[in-house]
Amino acid sequence: MAPGAEPERTCVGCREKAGKRGLLRVVRSPGVVRVDAGGKAPGRGAYVHRDTSCLEAALRRGALARALRTGLGPDEAARLRIAIEREVVK
Fold it and tell me: Which fold has domain 8-89?
């Protein structure tokens, strides 16, 4: 990669590519799925735009759970939705 070039990632909600800094990382660490605002936490990660429509699409289609290779129960999905919406507002 060229110096100064930003890596691209794909949003699991809309499937569009964007720069890593423009997306929000969600990470699955042992026993927990959480928002990784810094983008460097260890664990399996998935990216979503900072847009509620992308988040809803990712949850509705099960794309976020698939990308993280885990099941997301209704309570965990609701908790994750609240955490992501907090980051979207920032």
Answer: Hypothetical Cytosolic Protein; Chain: A; (3.30.1230)
